[in-house]
Amino acid sequence: LSFGTLGSWTVALGSMIFTFVEQAFPDQVIGGYNYVMSYSVSNQMATIIVTFPIYLLTMRYILKDLGAHPEKFDSGVRKWLTYLALLVAAGVAIGDLVTFLAYLLQGELTTRFVLKVIAVLVISGGVLGYYLTWVKKRNA
Q1: What is the pTM of this model?
Q2: Is the CA virtual torsion 54, 57, 59, 62 positive or negative?
Q3: 16-54 tens-digit pLDDT
Q4: What span, in angstroms and rounded, lies between the C-alpha atoms of 140 and 138?
Q5: How far is 126 from 129, CA to CA, in rounded Å?
Q6: Alpha-carbon gap, residue 44 to 139, rounded angstroms
């Protein structure tokens, strides 16, 4: 549940930031703000409002349980899912950096694009940092 809600709220947060960036820096070719963006933000906010507290409660329960039963740190499923989260977060960050470099080399950087790259790096970097800390605690 924790990893499912983690994926849900991080994707919704990224999508919402993308929508705000697109609204602040509209594409001159397709025009500015429209109804689809408003509808999109409400769906993204609803996803965050529901899934982020569930993620926090689930993680609180897991951390409390691990405090009472430290041997559960060695669970194969827990290790597998933690390393999967690390792999996905690292893959997203690497893909984001490759895309940024490709656009830079093509001379096609825009404020809108750079802000989206930063948003993805902050979100994936946060997840990566949190779960790397988790792994270090387990190995300490």
Answers
A1: 0.84
A2: negative
A3: 999 899 888 887 776 655 555 667 888 999 999 999 999
A4: 6
A5: 5
A6: 36
Sign of the C-alpha dihedral computed for residues 75, 133, 11 and 63 taken in this order: positive
Coil vs helix vs strand at 27:
strand
Amino acid at the residue 91: G
Helix (H, G, I), strand (E, B) or coil at 56: helix
Q: Which residues of the chain have pLDDT under 50?
A: none
Give the tokens for residue 139.
Answer: 């190995």
CA distance 11 to 119: 11
Residue 116, both tokens: 């989206």
Q: Give the other-Cβ count within 10 Å of 32's Cβ.
A: 12
In contact, 51 and 5? CB cutoff 8 Å: yes
At 31 the three-state DSSP class reads strand
